[in-house]
């Protein structure tokens, strides 16, 4: 019998876990620091580490091909799979995320009700992906005029981008995709869900009962100890902090104000090593890129430095270049004041909280996290204890006392939204290839751009429209 060269070796024999994954901000991508990231990337690498496997990610643009290739045993796992539809030839691990099929439309000149009425009456065709056909079939039982066209070689983010660019009028994507892209494309409206929520899970070929048991044990463990909730918060906990008007205003200022200062933010990155887009987001959060900004509390300038901080950093806070450099150095100082072992991106979010509320109050919040058996090195945990610094039951027991602890949480999470937008549209100062562990491989046979910055709808995708 001939050997099928595409079929993977049994995992017990190879010890290399082959995983089919799509590229998206909800699965696997290259982040602003040039590292591989994404919920599925983190989940898989932790699972592999737990079981001593090497990992080989195979990026497959087509969802339909992900399913077909798994059925053909070209991988051991497919991740981010919708477990609600018929899935002959595979079994699913536990659900770890619920998403809904939503309609996205250009909100200029039409409301949600108008968009849905146009679709339900049959006056337009909505474009979608295979994983949302079940939801559309259910919707069609109530709205007979609803019609759609299937686009198998695109992903949800590409559909949102196409709607934003006016290449598509309507599309159906997952609610999680709509959530993470909404601030970057505020001209895209999101209509209510079609049908019930769908469960995401890992899929395993039907013959690999041992791997399925390992997957079930893994998810039961991370659901029980709270680490799954922390991962979900890492990728979704800060979204929707910025409303559509604020996102539109930010994008407007990105076009007409940021160009005046871009080189100075990049100079600050050259000196401190901090991503210039993070520093620009910090400056926008502080002053909306206004070098003459003044607050009632006496902070001033582009980076809203106090007089003492400006003197400590050796800058004139009313000079925009000096303010940017002083703010960058001060943020770097906050990061350097935290323990070296704290991993990114938590260390950056903690440092930004210290920039806002003061290092002492951040240290108090970390101490409260310790007392509550939480992780003081985790932003997810510390952001739950910072608000306690308003409560005398807690602030009376720590060194630096009372603080408006809820404000740095809102500050950091809002800033992260602005940072996400800049990362999507502004190139890094010094692009670099991702660095990954020796036991992890990412194969990208379709040569897709895996980075989240400057991602555009490809010619191939546009041709499919």
Write up this protein:
45% of the residues are buried. This protein has helices at residues 11-14, 39-51, 63-71, 112-120, 133-142, 156-164, 175-181, 209-224, 227-236, 244-256, 258-272, 276-287, 307-313, 320-336, 346-357, 359-371, 379-385, 392-395, 406-425, 459-464, and strands spanning 16-21, 29-30, 36-37, 54-59, 77-82, 90-92, 97-106, 125-128, 147-150, 170-174, 188-205, 440-443. The chain folds into three domains: 11-97 and 200-238 and 433-455, Periplasmic binding protein-like II (D-Maltodextrin-Binding Protein, domain 2); 98-197, D-Maltodextrin-Binding Protein, domain 2, CATH 3.40.190; 246-425, Lysozyme (Orthogonal Bundle), CATH 1.10.530. By secondary structure, it is an alpha/beta fold. It starts with 10 loop residues before the first helix and ends with a helix. The strands form three sheets. Strands 1, 4, 5, 6, 7, 10, 11 and 12 form an eight-stranded mixed beta sheet that branches.
CATH structural class of the largest domain: Mainly Alpha
CATH architecture designation of the largest domain: Orthogonal Bundle
Q: What overall form do the CA principal axes indicate?
A: globular
Number of strands: 12
What structural category arises from helix and sheet content? Answer: alpha/beta
Main β sheet profile: 8 strands, mixed
Strand residue percentage: 15-25%
Task: Using the CA coordinates, give the radius of gyration.
Answer: 24 Å
Overall helicity? 40-55%
**Cα end-to-end separation:** 43 Å
How many structural domains in the coordinates?
3
What does the average pLDDT come to?
90
Poorly predicted sequence stretches spanning 5 or more consecutive residues? none
In DSSP terms (H or I, runs of 4 or more residues), the helix count works out at 20
CATH topology of the largest domain: Lysozyme
């Amino acid at each position: 019998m001939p050997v099928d060269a595409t079929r993977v070796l049994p995992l017990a024999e190879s010890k290399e876990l082959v995983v089919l994954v799509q590229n998206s901000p909800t699965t696997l991508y290259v982040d602003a620091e040039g590292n591989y990231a994404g919920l599925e990337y983190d989940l898989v690498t932790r699972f592999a580490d737990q079981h001593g496997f090497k990992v080989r990610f195979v990026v497959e643009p087509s969802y339909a091909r992900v399913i077909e290739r798994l059925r053909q045993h070209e991988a051991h796992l497919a991740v981010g799979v919708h477990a609600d539809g018929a899935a002959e030839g595979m079994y699913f691990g536990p659900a770890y995320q619920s998403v809904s099929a939503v309609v996205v439309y250009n909100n200029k000149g039409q409301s949600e009700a108008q968009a849905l009425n146009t679709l339900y009456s049959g006056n337009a065709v909505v474009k979608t992906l295979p994983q949302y056909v079940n939801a559309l079939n259910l919707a069609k039982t109530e709205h007979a005029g609803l019609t759609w066209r299937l686009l198998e070689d695109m992903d949800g983010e590409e559909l949102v981008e196409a709607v934003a660019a006016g290449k598509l009028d309507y599309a159906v994507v997952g609610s999680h995709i709509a959530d993470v892209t909404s601030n970057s494309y505020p001209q895209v409206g999101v209509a209510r869900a079609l049908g019930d929520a769908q469960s995401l899970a890992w899929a395993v070929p039907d013959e690999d009962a041992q791997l399925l048991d390992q997957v079930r044990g893994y998810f039961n463990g991370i659901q029980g100890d709270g680490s799954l909730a922390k991962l979900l918060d890492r990728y979704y906990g800060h979204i929707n902090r910025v409303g559509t008007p604020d996102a539109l205003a930010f994008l407007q200022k990105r076009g007409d104000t940021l160009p005046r200062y871009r080189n100075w933010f990049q100079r600050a990155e050259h000196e401190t090593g901090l991503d210039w887009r993070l520093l620009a987001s910090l400056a926008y959060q502080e002053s909306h890129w206004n070098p003459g900004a003044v607050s009632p509390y006496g902070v001033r300038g582009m980076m809203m430095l106090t007089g003492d901080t400006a003197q400590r950093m050796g800058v004139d806070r009313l000079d925009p270049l000096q303010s940017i450099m002083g703010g960058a150095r001060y943020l770097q100082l906050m990061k350097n004041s935290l323990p070296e072992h704290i991993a990114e991106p938590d260390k950056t979010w903690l440092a930004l909280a210290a920039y806002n509320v003061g290092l002492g109050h951040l240290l108090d919040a970390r101490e409260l996290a310790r007392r509550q058996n939480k992780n003081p090195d985790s932003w997810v945990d510390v952001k739950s204890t910072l608000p306690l610094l308003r409560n005398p039951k807690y602030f009376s027991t720590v060194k630096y006392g009372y603080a408006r602890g809820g404000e740095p949480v809102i500050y950091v999470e809002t800033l992260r939204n602005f940072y996400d937008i800049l990362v999507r549209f502004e190139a890094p100062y010094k692009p670099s290839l991702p660095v990954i562990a020796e036991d992890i491989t990412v194969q990208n046979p379709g040569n897709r751009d895996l980075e989240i910055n400057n991602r555009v709808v490809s010619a191939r995708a546009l041709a499919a429209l």
